[in-house]
Amino acid sequence: MASSLLAYAGWTFLPNLVTGWIQTIYYGVVIRAGDPKPQPGTPRYQKHRRRIFITVILAYLLYTVFEADYDLRRSGDFYQSLGLPHDVDDRGIKSRFRRLAALHHPDKVSASEDRATSDAYFVHLKLAQDTLLNPTKRFAYDRFGPDMLQWQHCSSVRDYLLAGLQAFAPLYVGSAVFMILLGVAGYLQWGRFVRNPISRPALGQTPFSDPANPNPL
């Protein structure tokens, strides 16, 4: 949960921070010494900042996608271990396991090979087959990943859904509270719409009025 909150904090603070750095460097490179630079608040400055911000967000998004894909590939999953697509049927799972068992069964391993590694790999393949052939466990595995293997007390879809809710609810609730607090504190743009209805009536303003332009229409 802590790592997820740090990721949210990264999405909140890093893009603006990096955008400011890049914009400063950009002006230092493309604008000659002595020439006026666009000032904050001007249309030109805002246009440049918006384009740089979008580029930073896309780059950060691509990085997080690549990181998640790398972690998934490194840890592997049962479908990948068996070399099967996610929509494979029971017949395909059994057929593939028989082929892999013929190659990796501990009795097939020569004395010169690492027997312990072979045993562990075969057990992993057997667990993959047993999990994916069980409709209830496959339902849970497809939604919660390998964490469901630790939920030994579960025997039905309802049990797995409740266990998944208990396991992941603190993360999502904590993340939501964290984002709301950031917004109310003013670190997120949408936070001002939470604060405005509370603070502006105290100042004699309508909740969503603009003090600089009280009659926008």
Main attributes of the structure:
mainly alpha, 217 residues
Overview in brief:
By secondary structure, the chain is mainly α. It is built from 8 helices and no strands.
Number of β-strand runs: 0
What is the terminal-to-terminal distance?
46 Å
Low-confidence stretches: 190-203, 205-217
**Shape summary:** elongated
Mean pLDDT comes to 78
SSE run: HHHHHHHH
Q: Report the portion of residues in β strands.
A: under 5%
> Which structural class should the secondary elements be placed in?
mainly alpha
Tally of DSSP helical segments: 8
Helix content: 55-70%
- What can be said about the biggest beta sheet? none
What value does the Rg take, in angstroms? 27 Å
Commentary on this structure:
The protein is mostly helical and 217 residues long. It is 68% helix and 0% strand. It is built from eight helices and no strands. The chain has helices spanning 2-30, 43-75, 78-82, 90-104, 115-133, 135-144, 157-184, 191-199. The protein is elongated, with a radius of gyration of 27 Å. Residues 190-203 and 205-217 have low confidence and may be disordered.
Topology:
Elements: H1 2-30, H2 43-75, H3 78-82, H4 90-104, H5 115-133, H6 135-144, H7 157-184, H8 191-199
